[in-house]
Write a structure and sequence with these properties.
Blueprint: E1 3-8, H1 15-25, E2 30-35, H2 51-59, E3 66-69, H3 77-82, E4 86-89, H4 97-106, E5 112-115, H5 130-154
Parallel strand pairs: 1-2, 1-4, 2-3, 4-5
Length: 160
Amino acid sequence: MTRVVAQGTFDLLHPGHVHYLEDAATFGDELHVIVARRTNVTHKPEPILCARQRRDMVAALDAVDGAHLGDPEDVFVPIERLDPDVIVLGFDQHHDEAGIAEALAARDIDCRVKRASGREPRYDDELLSSGDIVDRILRRRSASEAGKTADASRDGGERG
């Protein structure tokens, strides 16, 4: 049996995440996903959702056989415990494949490192990035609040 590990933050689960994990599952027979803890997310803003909630959302996906929280101090601890044959990185994850392979070899972890395929949006307004989702929410909320302020000014501050 070929065990595959994928990893990520998985904040605000979206179609890009689903594609990544479904693609990762094709590299073997069993897919385990390591969900990063907030303390390990240093390359982008801190996740909105807590780690347990993100793990539970990932675990609910059909492609996933097991979802695990990352170690708060050493990202390689769960990899050592899971002993994968393949680690599949996301298409746009910032990780360097060669650097990870070197770190694995230094720890005597024998597994291949692969990269998942990308996915294009299937329709014009589909978002495939948590950052893009947050940006859209902020823009729409800001525009909505601006509209409420303008309406309140026209109504003399009273709303019916």
